[in-house]
Structure formats: C-alpha cells, structure tokens
Design brief:
alpha/beta, about 15% strand, five-stranded parallel sheet, about 350 residues, Rossmann fold, 2 domains, Helicase, Ruva Protein, domain 3
Length: about 350
C-alpha cells in the first residue's frame, strides 16, 4: 500500500498528465471543455463514449485529435446501412500455400485497434451494431468459434446525429448500456465560431502532439480506482439508479409516469468511477456528493428507456435524472478521509 506522500505524488502526476492531455486536445478543439473532460474521464476509467450532436460540431475531429495526443493504434469505421459485421471484426479468408494447398487464415478488421471511432453508428443495421457488443464488454471478438483478444487499452468512441432519422437504426439497449458516458455536444457560441474559423481557415492548422501512451492511461485507471468513497455516498449513487426504475419504491412521480425501464447496475459503476476521477481533478482524496451529482447525467441518460407518454410529451432522460437528483435525499457531507 502506498504511503500518504507517495499517493499524493501519484495524484499530482495524474492531474498534471490529465491537464497535458486536455491542453493538447484544446489546441485543436475550440471550447467543448465539458465534452473533452467527460471523454478523457471515460477513457481513463476504461469505458466507451457515445457522442451525440448535429453534424459539424467537431465530434469526429475530437476523436482524431485524441488519437494524435495518445500514441495508440487508431481506426475509423464509417457506419453505413450496407456495412457487414465482417467489415468490423474481420473474417476468415482462403489463402494458397506455396506448396499448392489451401488454408483459412483470419484477417483482422478495424476493431483490432486501441482507439476505434465508430462514426455515425446509428446508420448501420442492428446486426452490424451488435458486432461491437462482445468487443466493448469482453475486449475480445469471436469468429468461427475462435476467440481473439484485443490489445489493451481498447476504447470505442461512437458518434450519432440525433436529428436525422431517415436511414438510421436506434442502438439496441444492450449496446447503449455498454457505453460509459453519453455526452451531448452543444452548438458553439459566436466567439467560439470565430476561433474555429481562425484555426481552420488559416495557412497552418493546429495539431495535437503525442503526450501519452496506452500504458500511462492504464496506470491512471488503476490509480483512480484507489480513491476511497464513503458507504453513504455509494448508497446515494445506488439510490439514484434505483430512482429511475418505475416499479421501485424510490421511483419519483416523474419516473413512474414517463419511464419504461430504468438504468442498469453499470450506471452505478460509471457514476462511482467517474466521481473518483472528478475528485482527483478537484485536488481531493475522496469522493464527494457533488462529484456524484456532476457525473450522474452522462452516466445514466442513455440507460433510461422512456415509455410512449414520455416520448409523446418530449420528456428527456436528463429531465428524469434531474428530478431524481432533486428528490433523493442527499447524504451528509461526509468524506472518506484522506487517501492512504
């Protein structure tokens, strides 16, 4: 077990490394600080990210910039209706040997990377979307009965357009649940648009420098999990998840009226891990209730399924989550003490 001084030094290095990475991304991406921090938080926690926003907001550029700042193998998959599962995970092909014989050999697909951009993921059919399920959860793929392990770290960053419905297929609930965070990319302000034009219409375009490798990300992930959390705060996170289930006694009136299915236990896992990383960034050695409240929307919004009435009245998952945050009794401002 690390001593208090050793842990303090490691956490200082964690913050410095996180800030270096964020600064490199900020050289290219204008604004969107919440999106950048949320994406980096999910990566360090070992989770996948779903970025939702209208075209032209820099979702794809953000992922490409992250790939530049991290010395990881990067692949982009453009999801289209005619994309097949084999186009994602790979397939067995027949090869002729020099002796004239034939044999099957597995040719890896683009999923065999450290950082995978699944661009416009909701444009592919459910069959192709489901090809990502095993990779996202088990970090492996199975072809013709043989399992292939993916290199660590392995991250999927998927983008989708919420407005255009023609030619799109909603993601299955099981796949949505495998995303650590769902982040909503907002339209930039007038001043941010000016900065975007400055960076993209001049002779030299900025580019992020590589500052981290995969090993550093895995080390940061291990360190974040050592941050303590008080029992009452853990129970608070569990209560927030249960408050999204219409049949549970903790369900709010809004949940009972508008929600068909609530968030899964993975939602609670994402809240706790995200809160631990937020605590480190805020120079604390323990999780606070504010950390949990801050990460809850990103961790839960894609894990709620609204019923017909909720959809008809244009209720959003965020409305349900805010209502739960306002309704669930908060724990006392307890701390778990200093890290040791």
């Amino acid at each position: 077990m690390a001593t208090t001084d050793e842990m303090k030094q490691k956490l200082d290095e964690f913050r410095a490394g996180f800030e270096r990475l964020r600064s490199e991304v900020a050289k290219v991406i204008v604004g969107q600080d919440e999106i950048v921090i949320g994406t980096l938080t999910a990566l360090i926690a070992g989770g996948h990210v779903l970025l939702e926003g209208v075209p032209g907001l820099g979702k794809t550029l953000l992922v490409r910039t992250l790939a530049d700042a991290l010395t990881l193998k990067f692949q982009r998959i453009q999801f289209t209706p005619d994309l097949m599962p084999a186009d994602v995970i790979g397939t067995n092909v027949v090869l002729e040997s020099p002796e004239g014989g034939r044999k099957f050999e597995f040719q890896q697909g683009p999923i065999f990377s450290n950082l995978v951009l699944a661009d416009e993921i909701n444009r592919a059919t459910p069959k192709t979307q489901s090809a990502l399920l095993e990779a996202m959860q088990e970090k492996s793929v199975t072809v013709a009965g043989k399992t292939f392990t993916l290199d660590r770290p392995f991250f999927v960053l998927a983008t989708q357009n919420p407005l255009e419905m023609e030619g799109t297929y909603p993601l299955p609930e099981a796949q949505l649940d495998r995303f650590f965070f769902k982040l909503m990319v907002k339209f930039p302000s007038a001043s941010e648009i000016e900065k975007i034009l400055d960076r993209t219409t001049e002779a030299v375009e900025p580019k992020a420098a590589a500052v981290f490798d995969g090993h550093a990300i895995l080390e940061m992930s291990r360190l974040a999990r050592q941050i303590p959390i008080a029992d009452e705060l853990r129970r608070y996170a569990v209560s927030l998840v249960l408050a999204t289930h219409p049949e549970h006694e903790l369900a709010t009136e809004m949940t009972k009226r508008y929600v068909r299915y609530g968030a899964s236990p993975r939602g609670a896992q994402a809240i706790i891990l995200g809160a631990k990383i937020r605590a480190i960034l805020d120079h604390r050695y323990h999780v606070s209730r504010d950390d949990i409240r801050a990460v809850a929307p990103a961790a839960l919004r894609h894990r709620l399924i609204l019923n017909f009435e909720g959809q008809a009245e244009s209720i959003s998952a965020d409305d349900i989550i805010v209502d739960a945050l306002d309704s669930i009794e908060e724990p006392a401002a307890a701390t778990a003490g200093s890290a040791h």
